[in-house]
Amino acid sequence: MMYRPAKAYIYLQALKHNLQNAxxxxxxxxxxxxxxxxxxxxxxxxxAHQLSGxxxxxVASIDEALLLxxxxxxxxxxxxxxxxxxxxxxxxxxxxLDVVIHSEYQLNWLLxxxxxxxxxxWIKIDTxxxxxxxxxQQLASVIAKLERSSNEFCIHLMSHFSSADEDNPQAExxxxxxxxxxxxxxxxxxxxxxxxxxxxxxxxxxxxHDWVRPGISLYGAGNIPGDKSTKQAVMQLESEIIAIxxxxxxxSVGYGNTWTATRKSKVAVIAIGYGDGYPxxxxxxxxxxxxxxxxxxxxxxxxxMITVDxxxxxxxxxxxxxxxxxxxxxxxxxxxEHAGTIGYELLCGVTKRIPMIEVQ
Length: 360
Known about the structure:
- It is built from eleven helices and 19 strands.
- The chain is α/β, with parallel strands linked by helices and 360 residues long.
- Strands 2, 3, 4, 5, 6, 7, 8, 9 and 10 form a nine-stranded parallel beta sheet that branches. Strands 1, 11, 14, 15, 16, 17, 18 and 19 form an eight-stranded mixed beta sheet that branches. A two-stranded antiparallel sheet has the order 12-13.
- Strand 8 (153-158), helix 8 and strand 9 (192-194) form a beta-alpha-beta unit.
- The two termini are 20 Å apart.
């Protein structure tokens, strides 16, 4: 099959390696590998196969869970946002799914439905993020209703960090308060507990509890402060140079003439753009790796092309030369920082026209 030069290589062993890292960091915890959003853009089925050594999978919605069941995965699967409709309950029962409950309406759906089997529910507690979760004062009432129900529930307790990956004293104080609040609220209960995301796993061992829930770190990204683990990038996005030309002083490049040469410049065009998931808002100066050297993006990102300045490139570069947009030697987090976003968005945003090629 013939492709455009733009493609993404998925390093399968890196996924396994990153899972082993997580298991080493939390040896006394089970690992719920978060593979929602199509495996953070890497392909949910592909990712699940490589992370099959995890104790369970976390997904956002029932369609992701059903895809995994249809592909034969028998792991514990947790619906991280819980039920969106009461009509999902029989599907959850039939497919033996775990479900988060974060609101009264979800609790009432479960209590009012005759459930013929034990159902695993994860009660989400709001410890300060104020997104999803029951208030800490509500927890006793929620647990009591589940315990008194004629249905049989296997109860877990969980919360989520808002800023465990932020490298500043204020964020660290807030994270410490979340850890303390979770402990004070849940320690009186004998149920399994879960708090740590990737940043909690790496930075706050006191948050590990019974289950850790790594996400971005499994894909070798995240730019988590103090991360000394040997995580490996899973996705390498690359393309090729399709044109090279010389630009004179005063001449501009790309839409809107946003970059103008202040010297005689050698410019290369690379076959990738926002139609492939490369961020349109990446500014001039965003690095691209060519022959082991970072060269700067210049001008606006087009739908199918970007331009880079080769003037200071130490090596001779020809048409067809490989250009790495992010990957093992050029962190997706660095590109995201230049583009004013996060690595998560770039990984999830790679479009369907980019072929994903598995590397064993």
